[in-house]
Write a structure and sequence with these properties.
Shape: globular
Number of helices: 5
Distance between the termini: 18 Å
Largest sheet: none
Strand content: under 5%
Number of domains: 1
Order of helices and strands: HHHHH
Radius of gyration: 14 Å
Amino acid sequence: MATIMRSSFGPTAVGLLALHDREFFERLLKNPKQAVDEVANTLELNDKDKVEVVRLIEERNRAGRSPAEALAGWQKYRTDGQWRTMDWPMGWPPWGRRQ
């Protein structure tokens, strides 16, 4: 019998929270593991979700995009509801990585 792989929406939940809460967004950029650990219970994140979000944020940070650029994008999003770049979280797969 084949095992059905289900997608996790954990990374998407983290991304949506980050778009809603500027302080969380900033903490996530600066220390992704700590920020994810803070919300893991509330968002019902499993260990794979947490690892994936930290990986995505660290990958984003290694790409040379500054936290200031991300925060400016966040402010524009809050002003007009449009995320203008493929910077995270909009560039993330909406369903997260297959578990």
